[in-house]
């Protein structure tokens, strides 16, 4: 479940307020002093910190952009440098994959394609219809350095897969966008996995049927990585901007990319 900055902040504030009321009531019962609560981070200040982190600027076309010299871009570069070392090392020792071909798996939203313009334009409040239109417009830029990482992996004989929580109805927009953003790798149905709720694959039968999709993010992505490995690959690296992108195993290493703008449980 995706939670925007504003929604998460309001939820925190409500939790704190509830805790304060509970503490006050308890104090009147046992004559103890109310427990102090901690005021949550000010949303206005937090948005400013996020802007600074991304090096936010609005172009003449009205599109919000992140700077390639921003702290965000520098954090990405450090993660990618480590990943390239690991890819190179794994490619030199293919026997460790027990005869399977090495592969990496990438999430799409804010791992392969940057959604910062949507977050800024929507004031960090997620809306299903506006998000759907944004994805299908296929205008997102690549996350800094990720097309180069994919190209590096392919030069070392590593297969590349994309695993996204985007709906099957959003596949065309995602695939078109990935190609436009510079990902020079197969983007067919055997390499790009979306969340197909109307017709879930058999390998997700433990949590999804055409009548009821019950897979959470971890189950969906874990089950798909397991399927990829079953088809003859050893996933040497899994990349995502959410912890839920990476949990569940079926990857030798995981790489958490920064994303302070929303949370997917």
From TrEMBL:
What are the alphabetically sorted keywords of the record? Glycoprotein, Signal
Source organism's superkingdom?
Bacteria
Q: Which Pfam families match?
A: Acid_phosphat_B (PF03767)
- The positions making up the signal sequence are 1-19
SUPFAM superfamilies (alphabetical): HAD-like
InterPro entries cross-referenced by the UniProt entry? Acid_phosphat_B-like, APS1/VSP, HAD-like_sf, HAD_sf
Per the record's keyword annotation, is Glycoprotein included, yes or no?
Answer: yes
* Keyword Ribonucleoprotein included in the entry's annotation: no
Entry protein name: Secreted acid phosphatase
């Amino acid at each position: 479940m995706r939670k925007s900055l504003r929604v998460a902040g309001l939820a925190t504030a409500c939790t704190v307020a509830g805790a304060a009321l509970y503490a006050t009531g308890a104090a009147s019962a046992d004559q103890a002093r109310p427990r102090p609560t901690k005021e949550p981070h000010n949303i206005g200040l937090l948005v400013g910190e996020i802007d600074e982190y991304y090096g936010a600027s609005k172009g003449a076309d009205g599109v919000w952009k992140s700077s390639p010299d921003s702290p965000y871009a520098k954090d990405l570069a450090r993660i990618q440098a480590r990943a390239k070392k690991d890819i190179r090392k794994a490619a030199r020792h293919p026997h460790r994959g027990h005869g399977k071909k090495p592969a990496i798996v990438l999430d799409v939203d804010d791992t392969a394609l940057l959604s910062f313009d949507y977050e800024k334009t929507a004031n960090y409040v997620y809306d299903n219809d506006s998000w759907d239109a944004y994805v299908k417009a296929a205008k997102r830029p690549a996350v800094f350095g990720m097309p180069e990482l994919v190209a590096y992996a392919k030069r070392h004989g590593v297969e590349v897969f994309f695993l996204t929580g985007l709906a099957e109805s959003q596949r065309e927009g995602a695939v078109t966008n990935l190609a436009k953003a510079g990902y020079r790798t197969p983007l067919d149905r055997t390499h790009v996995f979306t969340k197909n709720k109307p017709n879930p694959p058999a390998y997700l039968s433990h949590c999804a049927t055409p009548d009821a999709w019950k897979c959470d993010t971890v189950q969906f992505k874990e089950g798909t990585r397991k399927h990829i490995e079953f088809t003859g690959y050893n996933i040497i690296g899994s990349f995502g901007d959410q912890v839920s992108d990476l949990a569940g195993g079926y990857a030798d290493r995981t790489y958490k990319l920064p994303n302070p703008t929303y949370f997917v449980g």
